[in-house]
Amino acid sequence: xxxxxxxxxxxxxxxxxxxxDVVGALPKFLKKKKHDVRLIMPKYKKIDTxxxxxKPSVKGLLVPVGENTEVANVWEARLxxxxxxxxxxxxxxxxxxxxxxxATGDYLDNAERFIFFSRACLEAAKALAFxxxxxxxxxxxxxxxxVYLKTLYRIDGxxxxxxxxxxxxxxxYQGLFPKEILNMAGFAWYDFxxxxxEYYDQISxxxxxxxxTDIVTTVSPTYAKEIQSSNEFGRGMEGVLHRRAGDLxxxxxxxDYKEWDPTxxxxxxxxxxxxxxxxxxxxxxxxxxxxxxxxxxxxxLIGMISRLDSLKGFDLLAQCMPDLMKENLQFVILGIGDxxxxxxxxxxxxxxxxxxxxxxxxDNILAHQxxxxxxxxxxxxxxxxxxxTQLIAMRYGTIPIVRQxxxxxDTVEQFSSKTGTGNGFVxxxxxxxxxxxxxxxxxxxxxxxxxxxxxRSNAMGSNFSWDKAVEKYIExxxxxxxxRQQQKS
Length: 489
Ligand code: ADP
What we know:
This protein is α/β, with parallel strands linked by helices. The chain has helices at 18-32, 91-94, 110-127, 144-150, 182-185, 205-212, 221-229, 231-234, 238-243, 280-291, 314-324, 339-351, 364-373, 389-395, 406-411, 432-446, 449-461, 466-488, and strands at 2-6, 36-42, 55-65, 68-79, 83-89, 101-102, 105-106, 134-138, 163-168, 176-178, 198-199, 202-204, 215-218, 248-250, 301-308, 330-337, 356-359, 376-379, 399-403, 425-427.
């Protein structure tokens, strides 16, 4: 099949979260299955043109945005030497320090930026004469592509057979804008109805995409159920999703086993396998040095790598700290994000010197060192669509302690000392007492040499490769394509 992946980010070019990892890995596996897959994303200032060998491809592409016409240049690079990646360049929209927001808030013209990008994706496909059977859209930033194909481009023969699949990486990010942008998006007021574009008197690019796309997916089966079940999980989208229940699927993300591999990782001091886990201790002491902690073998080290966001459970963690800090343990935390959580963590770290290493930055190398050097990995998430960090941690023999929600529920199984099964520790209620109990259980296991070995072996033996997930995507691409052909006839 000819597949165009439209995404606002992609590893290794630009990343703010797990979406970029997914979009960077999935095409490699589609390519392995002989599909003609290509990617399209914005050309942000952050993207290193020289390092990634970007070459100019199309110059002066005209892109309608409301009543205006904007100009885009298309650049091209390769992912793994064989997968074309197209970059849409327009300095007015994308030559800025960040992707979507600074610490003080979202860029005010995000609606216009991603209206432009969504239309540019379609115009670029035409200019490049790449006629996709599937456009696989990721998150609200490209939620309008399915809408455009069924409205403004409905009579455009080029896209006559093109179907869309929309993947929701997090329902909390909805691309919500005042209704006045309707015209700029290219629509008329008669489209502003609840069954089409209207969303609580505003416009949500994500909702629009959900309504118009052929198939909707999200990143784990549990999350697919949760987001239809209540306002708490669906954040207002539950009704729209419920109406599309027959076309909504949950596919658990994989991780890129080449990028995340303790036997070959170029960023860690000592490489190890399940059979040479004693070498992981060296990664732990190296991490201690880097993170400014006096680590020792008998003190469990707990890692956290996360966006600092209300969904990730830092408020709960702060409540637990007085109790947790009484235990023999240390923390290494790596994250950037909301100022409130930065301040909260700073205050906590200051209160317990020598126990917490706080690293408020985005640092991929340190992330690798934390996955390798820690004993445990904590994710007290309030919501978690899939979560990649617990999967990466397990690959490095670092035992996850997680709240049972979304993809965490689908991937982490409570360890049982009776049967020796399970790959981590799971708590259910979003309560300090539940988190503290889970951590204490985990610490108890750490002290038991035989069981500790068992849980690490289970974690490292869990299979979260992309091979399984890619088959499911291909099946859904075929289903979307068939649906589209039926609509035509
Ligand atoms: P989300 O998509 O909600 O941010 P995921 O667990 O799906 O969460 O993915 C997070 C990805 O981003 C992982 O690859 C993780 O290693 C990486 N990451 C998150 N924060 C940082 C950071 N501060 N520095 C380096 N990598 C980070």
